[in-house]
Write a structure and sequence with these properties.
This protein is an alpha+beta fold. The protein has 2 domains: 66 residues, no CATH class; 195 residues, Jelly Rolls (Sandwich). It is 30% helix and 27% strand. Strands 4, 5, 6, 7, 8, 10, 13 and 15 form an 8-stranded antiparallel sheet that branches. It has a 4-stranded antiparallel sheet with strand order 9-14-11-12. It has a 3-stranded antiparallel sheet with strand order 1-2-3. A hairpin with a 5-residue loop joins strand 1 and strand 2. It is globular and about 50 Å long. This is Fe2OG dioxygenase domain-containing protein. Keywords: Membrane, Transmembrane, Transmembrane helix.
């Protein structure tokens, strides 16, 4: 949260009392406006398939083990000889200062890369996850666009409700990998296409299929636990042509912006 400090300066009131410039405050405000505008407009403009926009299932047999083996194999000699060095292999995510989706000024998130086993990573995406999403999507021919590494969220992390990139994150899966000392459920909050709010609790070995480009989703309440680790796998239909720009150019998109009394200058300045 950005607040005015006792000395009259602006800062992030997250314990660090970090000073920021007026320019950064404005940029962060623009990002937040962008998030809210996208949440209001994208679900009603961009086509979607499922009546709700999401579905929770168990991972197919062997998938959770393959993901864990992939992570362990990447750092095999470290686990074998220097287990405590495992955490040295995590990389803190470098979010832009104007980003407001995660409370990263307060709580850092980390990524464990799967790049060292990219062939296994891509095989999991194309041979296991893609057929599941293709069936759920009604038989769409899908193109693999991204498979992030294992993201580790730490205590008190939260994720503002948002919609994903419309260009690439159309049919996606959240893969629940592991939890450490999670004392209360850290639910995924979604606003279904029926307009209702749902709280989705995941255990290791479970996954959520979702249409992230139009489904509002997040984890807006702080994580009450030590670590919570997910992987995210994304696809788009091969015939897909929607983008953020095409939404703003669409007549309904223009009408929605006008109704909200928001201009693109408000979003992109």
């Amino acid at each position: 949260m950005v607040t005015q400090l006792e000395n009259g300066q602006w800062g992030f009131d997250v314990g660090q009392r970090q000073r920021v410039t007026e320019d950064l405050v404005r940029r962060r405000h623009s990002t937040t406006v962008m998030t809210h505008v996208r949440n209001l407009i994208f679900p009603i403009i961009i086509p979607h398939h499922d009546p709700l926009g999401f579905k929770k299932i168990k991972m197919p047999k062997g998938l959770h083990r393959r993901l864990m083996v992939c992570v362990f194999f990447c750092f095999l000699f470290l686990f074998y000889n220097f287990y405590r060095n495992y955490y040295d292999q995590r990389v803190a995510e470098n979010w832009e200062d104007e980003g407001t989706q995660l409370n990263y000024f307060d709580v850092k998130s980390h990524i464990i890369s799967l790049d060292n086993q990219w062939e296994e990573r891509d095989a999991i995406a194309n041979d296991v996850v893609k057929p599941i999403l293709a069936e759920w999507s009604g038989g769409e021919e899908l193109e693999f666009t991204a498979f992030y590494g294992i993201r580790e969220y730490a205590r008190n992390a939260l994720l503002r409700n948002h919609v994903d990139r419309s260009e690439t994150h159309v049919f996606s899966a959240i893969l629940q990998i592991s939890q450490t000392d999670v004392q209360s459920p850290w639910e995924l909050e979604v606003i279904g296409f029926d307009g209702k709010r749902y709280l989705v609790e995941l255990e290791p070995g479970e996954m959520v299929l979702y249409e992230g480009h139009t489904l509002i989703h997040g984890r807006p309440h702080p994580l009450n636990g030590t670590l919570y680790s997910n992987a995210f796998c994304h696809f788009k239909p091969k015939s897909w042509s929607w983008s953020t720009g095409s939404v703003w150019k669409h007549p309904d998109g223009k009408a929605a912006l006008s109704k909200l009394r928001v201009t693109l200058n408000d979003i992109y300045r």
